[in-house]
Write a structure and sequence with these properties.
Layout (H helix, E strand, L loop, with lengths): L1 H32 L2 H28 L2 H24 L5 H29 L5 H30 L1 H21 L4 E2 L12 H5 L1 H7 L2 H31 L4 H25 L5 H21 L3 H13 L1 H15 L2 H37 L7 H8 L5 H21 L3 H4 L1 H4 L11 E2 L1
Antiparallel strand pairs: 1-2
Protein backbone atom coordinates (compact mmCIF):
# COMPACT_ATOMS: atom_id res chain seq x y z
CA UNK A 1 0.00 0.00 0.00
CA UNK A 2 2.96 2.36 0.68
CA UNK A 3 4.14 2.20 -2.93
CA UNK A 4 0.62 2.86 -4.17
CA UNK A 5 0.34 5.96 -1.97
CA UNK A 6 3.70 7.33 -3.18
CA UNK A 7 2.63 6.99 -6.82
CA UNK A 8 -0.76 8.44 -5.92
CA UNK A 9 0.74 11.59 -4.38
CA UNK A 10 2.91 12.22 -7.44
CA UNK A 11 -0.06 11.79 -9.74
CA UNK A 12 -2.13 14.37 -7.81
CA UNK A 13 0.46 17.09 -8.39
CA UNK A 14 1.07 16.14 -12.02
CA UNK A 15 -2.62 15.90 -12.86
CA UNK A 16 -3.33 19.39 -11.53
CA UNK A 17 -0.84 20.78 -14.04
CA UNK A 18 -2.23 18.67 -16.88
CA UNK A 19 -5.83 19.67 -16.11
CA UNK A 20 -4.84 23.33 -16.10
CA UNK A 21 -3.42 22.96 -19.61
CA UNK A 22 -6.46 21.04 -20.86
CA UNK A 23 -8.85 23.60 -19.38
CA UNK A 24 -6.92 26.55 -20.85
CA UNK A 25 -6.74 24.89 -24.27
CA UNK A 26 -10.51 24.28 -24.14
CA UNK A 27 -11.05 28.02 -23.66
CA UNK A 28 -8.47 28.81 -26.36
CA UNK A 29 -10.13 26.51 -28.92
CA UNK A 30 -13.55 27.99 -28.14
CA UNK A 31 -12.14 31.53 -28.50
CA UNK A 32 -10.60 30.59 -31.84
CA UNK A 33 -13.56 28.74 -33.33
CA UNK A 34 -16.75 29.08 -31.25
CA UNK A 35 -17.53 25.55 -32.42
CA UNK A 36 -18.64 22.52 -30.40
CA UNK A 37 -17.35 20.37 -33.29
CA UNK A 38 -13.82 21.78 -32.96
CA UNK A 39 -13.78 20.93 -29.27
CA UNK A 40 -15.22 17.49 -30.03
CA UNK A 41 -12.48 16.81 -32.58
CA UNK A 42 -9.79 17.46 -29.98
CA UNK A 43 -11.44 14.76 -27.86
CA UNK A 44 -11.75 12.45 -30.86
CA UNK A 45 -8.08 12.66 -31.78
CA UNK A 46 -7.09 12.12 -28.16
CA UNK A 47 -9.08 8.88 -28.14
CA UNK A 48 -8.22 7.62 -31.64
CA UNK A 49 -4.75 6.21 -30.82
CA UNK A 50 -6.17 4.43 -27.81
CA UNK A 51 -8.40 2.46 -30.16
CA UNK A 52 -5.37 1.42 -32.20
CA UNK A 53 -2.87 0.52 -29.49
CA UNK A 54 -4.87 -0.66 -26.49
CA UNK A 55 -4.70 -4.38 -27.23
CA UNK A 56 -0.97 -4.15 -28.01
CA UNK A 57 -0.51 -2.10 -24.83
CA UNK A 58 -2.30 -4.82 -22.84
CA UNK A 59 0.20 -7.41 -24.06
CA UNK A 60 3.09 -5.05 -23.25
CA UNK A 61 1.77 -4.41 -19.73
CA UNK A 62 1.60 -8.15 -19.01
CA UNK A 63 5.11 -8.78 -20.40
CA UNK A 64 7.28 -5.74 -19.64
CA UNK A 65 8.22 -3.69 -16.59
CA UNK A 66 5.15 -1.67 -15.70
CA UNK A 67 7.06 1.06 -13.86
CA UNK A 68 9.27 1.63 -16.91
CA UNK A 69 6.22 1.86 -19.17
CA UNK A 70 4.72 4.51 -16.88
CA UNK A 71 7.97 6.51 -16.90
CA UNK A 72 8.13 6.46 -20.71
CA UNK A 73 4.55 7.71 -20.87
CA UNK A 74 5.37 10.60 -18.52
CA UNK A 75 8.33 11.63 -20.69
CA UNK A 76 6.18 11.65 -23.82
CA UNK A 77 3.58 13.78 -22.03
CA UNK A 78 6.27 16.34 -21.17
CA UNK A 79 7.44 16.45 -24.79
CA UNK A 80 3.85 16.98 -26.01
CA UNK A 81 3.33 19.90 -23.63
CA UNK A 82 6.67 21.41 -24.72
CA UNK A 83 5.63 21.17 -28.37
CA UNK A 84 2.36 23.02 -27.69
CA UNK A 85 4.19 25.65 -25.62
CA UNK A 86 6.78 26.30 -28.34
CA UNK A 87 4.12 26.66 -31.03
CA UNK A 88 2.08 28.99 -28.85
CA UNK A 89 5.01 31.19 -27.84
CA UNK A 90 5.97 31.56 -31.50
CA UNK A 91 2.36 32.48 -32.34
CA UNK A 92 2.08 29.48 -34.64
CA UNK A 93 -0.32 27.29 -32.64
CA UNK A 94 -3.40 26.30 -34.61
CA UNK A 95 -6.27 24.00 -33.72
CA UNK A 96 -5.10 21.31 -36.14
CA UNK A 97 -1.74 21.20 -34.31
CA UNK A 98 -3.62 20.04 -31.22
CA UNK A 99 -5.22 17.21 -33.19
CA UNK A 100 -1.77 15.84 -34.05
CA UNK A 101 -0.21 16.31 -30.62
CA UNK A 102 -3.08 14.75 -28.71
CA UNK A 103 -2.78 11.68 -30.96
CA UNK A 104 0.65 11.02 -29.48
CA UNK A 105 -0.33 12.07 -25.99
CA UNK A 106 -3.42 9.87 -25.99
CA UNK A 107 -1.60 6.75 -27.15
CA UNK A 108 1.09 6.85 -24.49
CA UNK A 109 -1.41 8.02 -21.91
CA UNK A 110 -3.40 4.85 -22.49
CA UNK A 111 -0.26 2.76 -21.98
CA UNK A 112 0.28 4.49 -18.64
CA UNK A 113 -3.34 4.01 -17.56
CA UNK A 114 -3.19 0.29 -18.31
CA UNK A 115 0.15 -0.17 -16.55
CA UNK A 116 -1.18 1.65 -13.50
CA UNK A 117 -4.55 -0.15 -13.44
CA UNK A 118 -2.99 -3.59 -13.82
CA UNK A 119 -0.59 -2.83 -10.92
CA UNK A 120 -3.24 -2.01 -8.33
CA UNK A 121 -4.03 -5.63 -7.48
CA UNK A 122 -0.29 -6.16 -6.85
CA UNK A 123 0.14 -3.11 -4.63
CA UNK A 124 -3.09 -3.17 -2.60
CA UNK A 125 -4.76 -5.95 -0.54
CA UNK A 126 -7.93 -7.35 -2.11
CA UNK A 127 -10.13 -5.97 0.66
CA UNK A 128 -8.94 -2.45 -0.19
CA UNK A 129 -9.50 -2.51 -3.97
CA UNK A 130 -12.52 -0.20 -3.81
CA UNK A 131 -10.71 2.19 -1.45
CA UNK A 132 -7.66 2.27 -3.72
CA UNK A 133 -9.84 3.00 -6.73
CA UNK A 134 -11.58 5.79 -4.83
CA UNK A 135 -8.20 7.35 -4.05
CA UNK A 136 -7.36 7.08 -7.72
CA UNK A 137 -10.55 8.94 -8.54
CA UNK A 138 -9.55 11.60 -6.00
CA UNK A 139 -6.50 12.38 -8.15
CA UNK A 140 -8.64 13.61 -11.04
CA UNK A 141 -11.14 15.39 -8.83
CA UNK A 142 -8.50 17.09 -6.70
CA UNK A 143 -7.13 18.42 -9.95
CA UNK A 144 -10.63 19.40 -11.01
CA UNK A 145 -10.94 21.54 -7.86
CA UNK A 146 -7.78 23.56 -8.35
CA UNK A 147 -7.05 23.41 -12.08
CA UNK A 148 -10.18 25.15 -13.49
CA UNK A 149 -10.10 27.85 -10.82
CA UNK A 150 -6.39 28.51 -11.34
CA UNK A 151 -6.54 28.26 -15.12
CA UNK A 152 -9.74 30.32 -15.32
CA UNK A 153 -7.98 33.07 -13.34
CA UNK A 154 -4.52 32.85 -14.94
CA UNK A 155 -5.47 32.40 -18.61
CA UNK A 156 -7.22 35.76 -19.18
CA UNK A 157 -4.64 37.65 -17.07
CA UNK A 158 -1.22 36.06 -17.56
CA UNK A 159 -1.80 34.08 -20.74
CA UNK A 160 -1.36 30.48 -21.79
CA UNK A 161 2.42 30.48 -21.36
CA UNK A 162 2.17 30.69 -17.56
CA UNK A 163 -0.01 27.59 -17.50
CA UNK A 164 2.47 25.68 -19.66
CA UNK A 165 5.30 26.34 -17.22
CA UNK A 166 3.19 25.23 -14.26
CA UNK A 167 2.27 22.04 -16.10
CA UNK A 168 5.88 21.23 -16.99
CA UNK A 169 6.97 21.80 -13.40
CA UNK A 170 4.34 19.45 -11.99
CA UNK A 171 5.51 16.63 -14.26
CA UNK A 172 8.66 16.45 -12.14
CA UNK A 173 6.68 15.22 -9.11
CA UNK A 174 5.19 12.25 -10.96
CA UNK A 175 8.52 11.41 -12.57
CA UNK A 176 10.38 11.37 -9.24
CA UNK A 177 7.80 9.15 -7.54
CA UNK A 178 8.02 6.61 -10.36
CA UNK A 179 11.82 6.61 -10.19
CA UNK A 180 11.96 5.86 -6.45
CA UNK A 181 9.30 3.13 -6.20
CA UNK A 182 9.35 -0.54 -7.11
CA UNK A 183 6.27 -2.15 -8.66
CA UNK A 184 6.01 -5.97 -8.40
CA UNK A 185 5.77 -7.86 -11.67
CA UNK A 186 3.32 -10.77 -12.18
CA UNK A 187 4.23 -13.97 -13.92
CA UNK A 188 2.96 -14.02 -17.49
CA UNK A 189 -0.09 -16.26 -17.86
CA UNK A 190 -1.16 -17.61 -21.25
CA UNK A 191 -4.53 -18.77 -22.53
CA UNK A 192 -2.88 -21.89 -23.95
CA UNK A 193 -0.44 -23.68 -21.67
CA UNK A 194 1.81 -24.63 -24.59
CA UNK A 195 2.15 -20.95 -25.56
CA UNK A 196 1.27 -21.59 -29.22
CA UNK A 197 -1.15 -18.70 -29.62
CA UNK A 198 -0.98 -16.73 -32.84
CA UNK A 199 -0.65 -12.94 -32.78
CA UNK A 200 -4.37 -12.61 -33.48
CA UNK A 201 -5.17 -14.90 -30.56
CA UNK A 202 -2.92 -12.84 -28.30
CA UNK A 203 -4.57 -9.60 -29.39
CA UNK A 204 -8.08 -10.98 -28.90
CA UNK A 205 -7.30 -12.80 -25.65
CA UNK A 206 -9.02 -10.23 -23.44
CA UNK A 207 -12.20 -10.23 -25.51
CA UNK A 208 -12.33 -14.03 -25.52
CA UNK A 209 -11.79 -14.08 -21.75
CA UNK A 210 -14.67 -11.64 -21.20
CA UNK A 211 -16.96 -13.35 -23.70
CA UNK A 212 -16.35 -16.74 -22.03
CA UNK A 213 -18.02 -15.46 -18.86
CA UNK A 214 -21.60 -14.16 -19.23
CA UNK A 215 -21.34 -11.95 -16.15
CA UNK A 216 -18.17 -10.21 -17.34
CA UNK A 217 -19.90 -9.78 -20.70
CA UNK A 218 -22.85 -8.21 -18.90
CA UNK A 219 -20.48 -5.86 -17.04
CA UNK A 220 -18.88 -4.73 -20.30
CA UNK A 221 -22.21 -4.24 -22.08
CA UNK A 222 -23.80 -2.34 -19.18
CA UNK A 223 -20.90 0.06 -18.86
CA UNK A 224 -20.88 0.62 -22.61
CA UNK A 225 -24.59 1.43 -22.64
CA UNK A 226 -23.94 3.90 -19.83
CA UNK A 227 -20.81 5.38 -21.42
CA UNK A 228 -22.37 6.25 -24.79
CA UNK A 229 -24.93 8.80 -23.53
CA UNK A 230 -22.68 9.86 -20.65
CA UNK A 231 -19.76 10.64 -22.97
CA UNK A 232 -22.00 12.54 -25.36
CA UNK A 233 -23.17 14.72 -22.47
CA UNK A 234 -19.57 15.06 -21.28
CA UNK A 235 -18.50 16.37 -24.70
CA UNK A 236 -21.33 18.93 -24.58
CA UNK A 237 -20.68 20.17 -21.05
CA UNK A 238 -18.03 22.84 -21.73
CA UNK A 239 -19.52 24.30 -24.93
CA UNK A 240 -22.99 24.24 -23.34
CA UNK A 241 -21.87 26.31 -20.35
CA UNK A 242 -19.75 28.61 -22.50
CA UNK A 243 -22.60 29.16 -24.96
CA UNK A 244 -25.07 29.97 -22.21
CA UNK A 245 -22.71 32.38 -20.39
CA UNK A 246 -21.25 34.37 -23.25
CA UNK A 247 -17.99 32.42 -23.23
CA UNK A 248 -17.19 33.05 -19.55
CA UNK A 249 -14.12 31.05 -18.49
CA UNK A 250 -14.69 32.15 -14.87
CA UNK A 251 -18.19 30.62 -14.73
CA UNK A 252 -17.05 27.43 -16.45
CA UNK A 253 -14.13 27.23 -14.04
CA UNK A 254 -16.39 27.76 -11.03
CA UNK A 255 -18.86 25.06 -12.07
CA UNK A 256 -16.06 22.63 -12.92
CA UNK A 257 -14.37 23.35 -9.58
CA UNK A 258 -17.63 22.54 -7.79
CA UNK A 259 -17.64 19.21 -9.63
CA UNK A 260 -14.06 18.61 -8.54
CA UNK A 261 -14.95 19.25 -4.89
CA UNK A 262 -17.84 16.81 -5.21
CA UNK A 263 -15.60 14.18 -6.73
CA UNK A 264 -13.00 14.51 -3.99
CA UNK A 265 -15.62 14.36 -1.25
CA UNK A 266 -17.18 11.33 -2.90
CA UNK A 267 -13.79 9.65 -3.15
CA UNK A 268 -12.89 10.42 0.47
CA UNK A 269 -16.22 9.14 1.76
CA UNK A 270 -15.85 5.99 -0.33
CA UNK A 271 -12.26 5.43 0.85
CA UNK A 272 -13.45 5.59 4.48
CA UNK A 273 -16.68 3.67 3.94
CA UNK A 274 -15.31 1.08 1.52
CA UNK A 275 -18.44 0.96 -0.61
CA UNK A 276 -21.35 -1.46 -0.70
CA UNK A 277 -20.59 -5.01 0.35
CA UNK A 278 -22.14 -6.02 -2.96
CA UNK A 279 -20.15 -3.79 -5.28
CA UNK A 280 -22.63 -4.11 -8.15
CA UNK A 281 -25.00 -1.90 -6.12
CA UNK A 282 -22.35 0.82 -6.11
CA UNK A 283 -22.12 0.64 -9.89
CA UNK A 284 -25.84 0.66 -10.68
CA UNK A 285 -26.94 3.11 -7.98
CA UNK A 286 -24.06 5.34 -9.07
CA UNK A 287 -25.36 5.27 -12.67
CA UNK A 288 -28.86 6.26 -11.56
CA UNK A 289 -27.87 9.03 -9.14
CA UNK A 290 -25.24 10.48 -11.46
CA UNK A 291 -27.76 10.66 -14.29
CA UNK A 292 -30.41 12.34 -12.14
CA UNK A 293 -28.08 15.11 -10.99
CA UNK A 294 -26.64 15.60 -14.50
CA UNK A 295 -30.22 16.08 -15.70
CA UNK A 296 -30.62 18.79 -13.09
CA UNK A 297 -27.41 20.39 -14.38
CA UNK A 298 -28.84 20.55 -17.88
CA UNK A 299 -32.19 21.90 -16.73
CA UNK A 300 -30.58 24.57 -14.54
CA UNK A 301 -30.35 28.18 -15.70
CA UNK A 302 -28.21 29.80 -13.02
CA UNK A 303 -24.72 29.42 -11.59
CA UNK A 304 -25.84 28.17 -8.13
CA UNK A 305 -27.98 25.42 -9.68
CA UNK A 306 -25.17 24.36 -12.02
CA UNK A 307 -22.71 24.23 -9.13
CA UNK A 308 -24.95 22.19 -6.83
CA UNK A 309 -26.04 19.76 -9.56
CA UNK A 310 -22.51 19.21 -10.87
CA UNK A 311 -21.21 18.84 -7.31
CA UNK A 312 -23.79 16.16 -6.50
CA UNK A 313 -23.35 14.25 -9.77
CA UNK A 314 -19.58 14.14 -9.28
CA UNK A 315 -19.81 12.74 -5.76
CA UNK A 316 -21.20 9.55 -7.33
CA UNK A 317 -18.57 9.07 -10.05
CA UNK A 318 -16.01 7.44 -7.69
CA UNK A 319 -18.76 5.11 -6.49
CA UNK A 320 -19.66 3.58 -9.83
CA UNK A 321 -16.14 3.55 -11.27
CA UNK A 322 -14.49 2.16 -8.13
CA UNK A 323 -17.18 -0.46 -7.57
CA UNK A 324 -16.96 -1.65 -11.18
CA UNK A 325 -13.16 -1.74 -11.27
CA UNK A 326 -13.00 -3.55 -7.93
CA UNK A 327 -15.10 -6.36 -9.42
CA UNK A 328 -12.70 -6.67 -12.37
CA UNK A 329 -9.59 -6.64 -10.14
CA UNK A 330 -11.05 -9.25 -7.80
CA UNK A 331 -11.99 -11.72 -10.53
CA UNK A 332 -9.06 -11.56 -12.98
CA UNK A 333 -5.62 -13.02 -12.11
CA UNK A 334 -2.83 -10.38 -12.06
CA UNK A 335 -0.94 -11.99 -14.95
CA UNK A 336 -3.98 -11.60 -17.20
CA UNK A 337 -5.15 -8.16 -16.14
CA UNK A 338 -3.18 -6.20 -18.73
CA UNK A 339 -4.87 -7.98 -21.63
CA UNK A 340 -8.34 -8.33 -20.11
CA UNK A 341 -8.47 -4.75 -18.85
CA UNK A 342 -7.14 -3.65 -22.24
CA UNK A 343 -10.09 -5.32 -23.94
CA UNK A 344 -12.55 -3.69 -21.57
CA UNK A 345 -10.87 -0.30 -21.91
CA UNK A 346 -10.72 -0.61 -25.70
CA UNK A 347 -14.50 -0.70 -25.71
CA UNK A 348 -14.50 2.41 -23.54
CA UNK A 349 -11.98 4.38 -25.59
CA UNK A 350 -13.81 3.48 -28.81
CA UNK A 351 -16.98 4.92 -27.33
CA UNK A 352 -15.04 7.94 -26.04
CA UNK A 353 -13.54 8.53 -29.51
CA UNK A 354 -16.81 8.28 -31.41
CA UNK A 355 -19.18 10.06 -29.04
CA UNK A 356 -17.53 13.53 -29.27
CA UNK A 357 -18.01 13.41 -33.04
CA UNK A 358 -21.63 12.40 -32.58
CA UNK A 359 -22.09 15.12 -29.96
CA UNK A 360 -20.51 17.82 -32.12
CA UNK A 361 -22.52 16.89 -35.19
CA UNK A 362 -25.83 16.62 -33.36
CA UNK A 363 -25.23 19.86 -31.45
CA UNK A 364 -24.08 22.05 -34.34
CA UNK A 365 -26.07 20.57 -37.21
CA UNK A 366 -29.26 19.21 -35.66
CA UNK A 367 -30.23 20.40 -32.19
CA UNK A 368 -28.95 23.99 -32.27
CA UNK A 369 -30.75 24.81 -35.55
CA UNK A 370 -33.84 22.94 -34.37
CA UNK A 371 -34.02 25.03 -31.19
CA UNK A 372 -33.71 28.43 -32.84
CA UNK A 373 -36.88 30.56 -32.71
CA UNK A 374 -37.99 29.18 -36.09
CA UNK A 375 -36.69 25.65 -35.51
CA UNK A 376 -38.86 22.55 -35.50
CA UNK A 377 -38.20 21.71 -31.83
CA UNK A 378 -38.58 25.24 -30.48
CA UNK A 379 -42.39 25.05 -30.11
CA UNK A 380 -42.05 21.81 -28.12
CA UNK A 381 -39.06 22.48 -25.86
CA UNK A 382 -38.56 26.23 -26.12
CA UNK A 383 -40.40 26.96 -22.87
CA UNK A 384 -38.01 24.62 -21.03
CA UNK A 385 -34.65 25.28 -22.69
CA UNK A 386 -35.21 28.62 -24.41
CA UNK A 387 -34.36 29.36 -28.03
CA UNK A 388 -31.04 31.17 -27.70
CA UNK A 389 -27.48 29.99 -28.24
CA UNK A 390 -26.86 26.72 -26.39
CA UNK A 391 -30.53 25.70 -26.15
CA UNK A 392 -30.10 22.84 -28.61
CA UNK A 393 -26.98 21.57 -26.86
CA UNK A 394 -28.83 21.66 -23.57
CA UNK A 395 -31.76 19.63 -24.94
CA UNK A 396 -29.34 17.02 -26.27
CA UNK A 397 -27.43 17.02 -22.96
CA UNK A 398 -30.58 16.37 -20.91
CA UNK A 399 -31.77 13.65 -23.29
CA UNK A 400 -28.48 11.80 -22.80
CA UNK A 401 -28.44 12.13 -19.02
CA UNK A 402 -31.93 10.64 -18.81
CA UNK A 403 -30.62 7.66 -20.80
CA UNK A 404 -27.90 7.05 -18.19
CA UNK A 405 -30.57 6.83 -15.48
CA UNK A 406 -32.45 4.23 -17.52
CA UNK A 407 -29.30 2.12 -17.94
CA UNK A 408 -28.88 1.89 -14.17
CA UNK A 409 -32.52 0.90 -13.71
CA UNK A 410 -32.32 -1.66 -16.51
CA UNK A 411 -29.19 -3.18 -14.94
CA UNK A 412 -31.19 -4.41 -11.97
CA UNK A 413 -33.40 -6.47 -14.28
CA UNK A 414 -30.43 -8.34 -15.82
CA UNK A 415 -29.61 -11.37 -13.69
CA UNK A 416 -26.11 -11.98 -15.09
CA UNK A 417 -25.21 -8.41 -14.11
CA UNK A 418 -27.14 -8.13 -10.86
CA UNK A 419 -25.57 -11.35 -9.50
CA UNK A 420 -22.10 -10.92 -11.00
CA UNK A 421 -20.40 -11.32 -7.61
CA UNK A 422 -22.22 -14.58 -6.93
CA UNK A 423 -21.50 -16.00 -10.38
CA UNK A 424 -17.81 -14.96 -10.33
CA UNK A 425 -16.63 -15.34 -6.71
CA UNK A 426 -13.62 -13.35 -5.51
CA UNK A 427 -11.72 -16.51 -4.62
CA UNK A 428 -10.69 -16.82 -8.28
CA UNK A 429 -7.95 -14.34 -7.36
CA UNK A 430 -5.58 -15.70 -4.67
CA UNK A 431 -4.02 -13.04 -2.46
CA UNK A 432 -0.54 -13.26 -3.99
CA UNK A 433 -1.28 -15.07 -7.22
CA UNK A 434 1.56 -15.02 -9.69
CA UNK A 435 3.54 -12.16 -8.14
CA UNK A 436 7.31 -12.05 -8.45
CA UNK A 437 9.45 -9.39 -6.77
Amino acid sequence: MRTFLIIWLGQIVSTIGSFMTVFALTIWVWDQTGSATALALVGFFAQLPKMLITTFAGIAVDRFNRRLLMIVAEVVAVLCTLAIAILYLNQQLQVWHLYIIVLLYGGFGQLQVLAYSASISLLVPKAKFTRAESLGAAVNYSAAIFAPALAGFIYPRLGMQSIFWIDLTTFIAAFITLIIVKIPQPTVQEFNSDNTESLWQKLTFGFRYIWANPSLTAMAIAFTLFAIPNDISKALYSPMILARTGGSSEILGTVTTAAGIGGVIGAIVLSIWGGFQRRIHGMLIGFIGHGIFRTMLGLGQTLPVWMVAHFCSSTLIPLFYSSSNAIWYATIPPGLQGRVLAADQLIGVTVAAITPLIAGFLADRVFEPAMRPTGILAPIFGNIFGTGTGAGMTLLFVSMTICTVLVGIFGYTWRALRKVEDLIPDNKLPENSGVVD
